[in-house]
Amino acid sequence: MMYQQRMMMSPPPSHMMQQQRHHGDDLGHGAFGGRQQSRMGYRSENAGANGMSLGLMNGGSMSAPMMGGSANDPSSLSAALSVEDIQNRVFAMSKDQNGCRLLQEQLDYEDRSDLCEVIYQESLEHLAEMMVDPFGNYLFQKLLERVNEKQRLVIIRRVSSNLVAAALNLHGTRSVQKVVEVCATSPDVIEEDYDDEEGEDYGYVKDREERPEGGERRRTTSLPDLIVEALKDDAVRLCIDSNGNHVIQRALQFMKPEYNQFVFDAVCKECTTVGTHRHGCCVLQRCLDAANKTQKAEVIEQVERQAMKLMQDPYGNYVVQYVLDSCTAEEAFGVIMKPLGHIYELSVQKFSSNVIEKCLEKAPERVRQKYIAEITNCPKMNKMLQDQFANYVVQRALCVCAEEQCLLLVKAIRPHLAAMKNTSGGRRITARILKRFPTMDISMDMGMSPTADNLFDNGNTMMMGHLPTSTMGGNYVPQQHLQPSQMYGMQGSHMGASPHFQGGARGNRMPQMHGNDGSMMMLNDVGGMGMNATSRA
């Protein structure tokens, strides 16, 4: 009693407090990494009626007499702890930031098995509370890693009925993820002379049971089976929960496919519910990554059945696209076939238009021909071309279809080019056509005459001394705008044939030529008074 009172009365040195504050920051796991110190001490539950303090006041720092050792030694704060220092106080310490770190450090010392045993024994009665505590969950995770197989089995049995509730909790989800990760890689546990009633209480799964002659009964227990039993009835709920979905994804990542079958059963049964949820759609994609051949076929079959609904959903369309991306055309054949007959309706929608583009890319050639034929023969081609989403489908079709079909598609598009020449979608489609068929002349389709009157952006007359180039390619310049009097100094009447004509097909430079005396002449006003001499070359 006098020793504890002395610890309360002696304030810790300032340098000791600073050292304790920074010691073991790597054990705070990020979010609780020492920026904000707890200003509340904690009291032992067994300290008596007077509520005597543990001495861990003022930011959780311990007084110098209790710690012992040198204040300059970073490990002295942890190494000097004795069993008496933490006995009957583990749970209270686990709920404090610094106290939790201190306990975690003890579990790292291989020569402090006495302390580890105290931490383990005192934690058993409070595991469910520790799992969801902002600080205690870190001690739970560390404890789960450090104990032996049989101790781990005891922990799992005690928390199995609380796993779902913890998985739905912001802090508890970390604890359950660690349970899944550790148990997935743990060997089976052989128990000797076990108690049937204890097994029933904790809901374990009996894998194998044997009784050697003249010996005790033995049972082999698989830890992953315990996890499956605890989670399987709430799998759908976990899939669509902001915290619980991480537990399911961790199971898919670490556990073998045969143990994960409960996840596949759940998502296949409630494919639409899971697939159209912002978190559930991610779980479905991870299912495809973790599945064996049989499980993958089951998921694809369910996605195919619900494909029309999924592809029109803000989240479900990602599931359909992921099937198309991660599976072969043969595996996803049923999904690819679903949009046929509904291409226009799906193309004008924001989410499903992405799926149609993906189908055009992934479809086998014979199926792609059906897609192109439906687009080509669409009675609402004009609306499709001008729609903010469907025009991307048409662009994709122009890129992926065979040349013969592409010509038919272009033929169906050309009558509508004039109406959409001033829209961004129309310009993109025109660019796609010209990229696929560079020599194709579509000037008439754009409402432009092959004569010069319709070739210029600034009207029917050339202004400001510039000769625009033809949209038909090359250095075509219409002759009818050049009078014979304006051809002085040129070798021919066709400016495009003159060796002195400068400027590319896309340029906007004035044509230059040389007079008989070697001076450089410039065509300054084609529609006016002819050439004016400039400075000599």
From TrEMBL:
<feature type="compositionally biased region" description="Basic and acidic residues">
    <location>
        <begin position="203"/>
        <end position="219"/>
    </location>
</feature>
<dbReference type="InterPro" id="IPR011989">
    <property type="entry name" value="ARM-like"/>
</dbReference>
<feature type="repeat" description="Pumilio">
    <location>
        <begin position="85"/>
        <end position="121"/>
    </location>
</feature>
<dbReference type="InterPro" id="IPR001313">
    <property type="entry name" value="Pumilio_RNA-bd_rpt"/>
</dbReference>
<keyword id="KW-0677">Repeat</keyword>
<feature type="domain" description="PUM-HD">
    <location>
        <begin position="62"/>
        <end position="437"/>
    </location>
</feature>
<feature type="compositionally biased region" description="Low complexity">
    <location>
        <begin position="1"/>
        <end position="19"/>
    </location>
</feature>
<dbReference type="Pfam" id="PF00806">
    <property type="entry name" value="PUF"/>
</dbReference>
<feature type="repeat" description="Pumilio">
    <location>
        <begin position="374"/>
        <end position="411"/>
    </location>
</feature>
<dbReference type="GO" id="GO:0003729">
    <property type="term" value="F:mRNA binding"/>
</dbReference>
<feature type="repeat" description="Pumilio">
    <location>
        <begin position="266"/>
        <end position="301"/>
    </location>
</feature>
<dbReference type="InterPro" id="IPR033712">
    <property type="entry name" value="Pumilio_RNA-bd"/>
</dbReference>
<dbReference type="GO" id="GO:0010608">
    <property type="term" value="P:post-transcriptional regulation of gene expression"/>
</dbReference>
<feature type="region of interest" description="Disordered">
    <location>
        <begin position="1"/>
        <end position="23"/>
    </location>
</feature>
<dbReference type="InterPro" id="IPR016024">
    <property type="entry name" value="ARM-type_fold"/>
</dbReference>
<feature type="repeat" description="Pumilio">
    <location>
        <begin position="302"/>
        <end position="338"/>
    </location>
</feature>
<feature type="region of interest" description="Disordered">
    <location>
        <begin position="196"/>
        <end position="219"/>
    </location>
</feature>
<protein>
    <recommendedName>
        <fullName>PUM-HD domain-containing protein</fullName>
    </recommendedName>
</protein>
<dbReference type="GO" id="GO:0005737">
    <property type="term" value="C:cytoplasm"/>
</dbReference>
<dbReference type="InterPro" id="IPR033133">
    <property type="entry name" value="PUM-HD"/>
</dbReference>
<feature type="repeat" description="Pumilio">
    <location>
        <begin position="230"/>
        <end position="265"/>
    </location>
</feature>
<feature type="repeat" description="Pumilio">
    <location>
        <begin position="122"/>
        <end position="157"/>
    </location>
</feature>
